[in-house]
């Protein structure tokens, strides 16, 4: 199954991506985490992995990818970076980090001021996700940038479901409505994950979420997770809520 995690900045996308990847990998099948957030330099540390080389480097780097796209103008959609389907075993070793059944690919990062927009990474990410062929039990978890720009880039196009992180904020609640609308237009199921909640915020969030039956997990505020995030350490917390979420996703999506 291919899962896209989204939400506003600071909602906990990368933390939940790491927790879910580690939990699902315990079942014995590999889990690929695809980092499509060009400004996130922390996900690899949460997974206990080195940051791999930008996957754009496989095609000569960001500027080479951009040039290839621009040469196809105005028919940008004709550009294809893959001639045949890949499985997880086909991922180039120089562009992945791996540990305990979790594999990390980082599509590309912004490294220098003035280097241009992230459009090449967006197109490459969409094709990369769509090109992957999975064996039974294998999972792809896609961590996205804050907001909903990834919907415009078509990242969800080849996903099996969208997991929306909602933290205790008005902004997050409103964004969940837009995510639901956009995912529905693509015929993608949506699962809401309430994150960083306590006994006061949870009932208020439930009252203000449309289609509350889509709430698939409620993750309480956790001091250990917060501390690990501040220190840039690997996440070692084992949450029953994450294990239950993983089981539900497997049952629903296979």
From TrEMBL:
GO function term, MF aspect, one: ATP hydrolysis activity
SUPFAM superfamilies: P-loop containing nucleoside triphosphate hydrolases (SSF52540)
Keyword Membrane: no
Its EC number(s): 2.7.1.25
GO BP term (any one): negative regulation of cell division
Catalytic EC class: transferase
Keyword set includes Transferase: yes
UniProt keyword annotations, A-Z: ATP-binding, Kinase, Nucleotide-binding, Transferase
Gene Ontology CC terms: cytoplasmic side of plasma membrane; cytosol
InterPro entries: CobQ/CobB/MinD/ParA_Nub-bd_dom, CooC, P-loop_NTPase, ParA/MinD_ATPase
Domain CobQ/CobB/MinD/ParA nucleotide binding: 4-234
Pfam families recorded: CbiA
Domain of life: Archaea
Protein name: Adenylyl-sulfate kinase
Species whose genome carries this gene: Methanofollis aquaemaris
């Amino acid at each position: 199954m291919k899962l896209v995690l989204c939400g506003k900045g600071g909602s906990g996308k990368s933390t939940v991506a790491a927790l879910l990847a580690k939990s699902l990998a315990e079942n014995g099948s590999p889990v690929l985490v695809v980092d499509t957030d060009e400004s996130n330099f922390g996900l690899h540390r949460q997974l206990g992995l080195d940051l791999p080389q930008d996957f754009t480097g496989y095609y000569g780097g960001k500027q080479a990818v951009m040039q290839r796209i621009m040469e196809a103008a105005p028919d940008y959609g004709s550009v294809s970076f893959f001639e045949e389907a890949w499985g997880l075993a086909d991922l180039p070793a120089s562009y992945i980090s791996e540990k305990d059944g979790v594999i990390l690919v980082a599509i590309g990062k912004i490294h220098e001021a003035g280097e241009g927009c992230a459009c090449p990474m967006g197109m490459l990410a969409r094709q990369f996700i769509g090109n992957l062929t999975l064996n039974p039990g294998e999972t792809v978890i896609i961590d996205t940038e804050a907001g909903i720009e990834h919907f415009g880039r078509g990242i969800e196009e080849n996903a099996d479901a969208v997991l929306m992180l909602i933290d205790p904020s008005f902004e997050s609640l409103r964004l969940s409505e837009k995510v639901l609308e956009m995912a529905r237009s693509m015929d993608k199921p949506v699962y809401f994950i309430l994150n960083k909640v306590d006994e006061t915020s949870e009932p208020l969030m439930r009252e203000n979420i449309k289609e509350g039956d889509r709430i698939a997990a409620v993750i309480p505020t956790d001091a250990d997770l917060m501390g690990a995030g501040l220190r840039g350490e690997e996440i070692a917390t084992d949450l029953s809520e994450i294990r239950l979420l993983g089981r539900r996703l497997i049952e629903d999506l296979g």
